[in-house]
Q: What sequence folds into this?
């Protein structure tokens, strides 16, 4: 899967068209490019939850596994290794 960054105005237009009950096929026909249906569904879901099509990065959840040790422990370990 390739990450594609879309302009917020495109997202707003697509959500507006989806709210007007336009089909995904019709939307893609009117655009000069194709947007995957899952992408459109994700934008619509975000709009329903937040009334916005762009998320604030400060509200993103942490991804991946949590660190096994904190930064302070990592620095302490690095200092200890230098002593060896």
A:
């Amino acid at each position: 899967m390739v990450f594609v960054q879309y302009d917020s105005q495109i997202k707003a237009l697509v959500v507006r068209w989806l709210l007007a009950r336009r089909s995904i096929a019709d939307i893609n026909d009117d655009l000069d490019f194709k947007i995957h249906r899952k992408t459109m569904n994700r934008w619509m879901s975000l709009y329903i939850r937040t009334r916005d099509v762009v998320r604030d990065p400060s509200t993103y959840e942490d991804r991946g596994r949590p660190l096994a040790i904190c930064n302070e422990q990592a620095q302490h370990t690095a200092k200890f290794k230098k002593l060896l």
